[in-house]
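User: If you would, consider this record:
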Amino acid sequence: MFDLDRWQEIFSSIRSNVLRTVLSGFTVALGLFIFIVLFGIGKGLQNAFTEGFARDAQNLITIVTGKTTIAYNGLQSDRQVTMNNDDYDFLVNVDKEKVGSSTPRYTTNLLVKYGKESGNYQINGAEPEEQIIENRKMLEGRYLSPTDMERKQNVAVIGRMVQRDLIKNGSPVGKELNINGTMFKVVGVFSDDGGDWDERHITVPISTLQQMKKGSDTVSTNFIAYNENLSPEEAIKYGDQLKERLKSRKNVAPDDENGVRVWNNAKNMNDTFTFMAVLTAIVGFIGMGTLLAGIIGISNIMVYIVKERTKEIGVRKAIGAKPGSIVALIVQESVVITVISGFVGVGIGVLTLNLIGDSLEEYFIKSPSVGLGTIFMAFIALIFSRINCRICARISCVKN
């Protein structure tokens, strides 16, 4: 129940002991401030590492071929290994339940013209899921569709920089590009986190591009995003199995590292997960240490406050005040100071993180922030540390 007299006593005590109140509140505010800034910077490091893997699918396996370096099965070394559509189908279907998104890609550089503008661009023949693999965002229009693939349509999706270079005015969707003498209708424009280089690419149906190349079924690269339910260890093993199976299929020696090459993001992600786990543990340890130091500081201040108020407590007991009411008064005053100073510490901490923003991005700290849940738990820990100090007050009450 709200007791007006008790609240008047609390605020009277605070006004009468400004220095004691400020020092007590400063300990709480400083503890929360340091805790929030530390955790925020830790989150900023996590954001930077996450973004580092966001250019393409984080669960990506990339498969390419080259020239063999070892003679094998009666075949000479220095033999060019090429992949085709059947190899892509084999790789995707051999462990289909482990595959998320995937696409083959046939890459070539061709002259592209639009009106009086022209330039050489990388043309990628691919399937619709390339958009997921490359983590591309549509700015206008659409990406490739299964119908485009089936009908071998002359349609193209262009990067933002291609639009800037060639089609300077108006929407490019619906306009036609001359790609190596063949007209392609632009159906969409994309942006790519990979930057200007990736945004100077043009994607067309792989079936169309292969047909332009005299009916070739050659594939330059196979992209397979493994199922996200796989653990990093399982994904690494899956990538190694794909490499071994393709080597066997193409008669490449098992120890030939050039004939078939595989890049598996799971290996990088595994190292990153380990690093982030260690980093989180370190930041958490420092943050909790800071919070614990604040709690100890609060406890020491509470002991001092109770000793300082020994005479006051004695007078209260002499006029009939019960020990429980005395303890409740002291604890309530402490909670009020903790809550007010806690809000100050939280406010300054959050403001500091907002001011930092992306200014530390060159140090791999991006958008530092702290979740409300973390702030709430730290706040509650400090408040309960105040409440637990009632033991000190109770001891003093008994002695006096």
User: Anything to note?
Assistant: The chain has a mean pLDDT of 83.
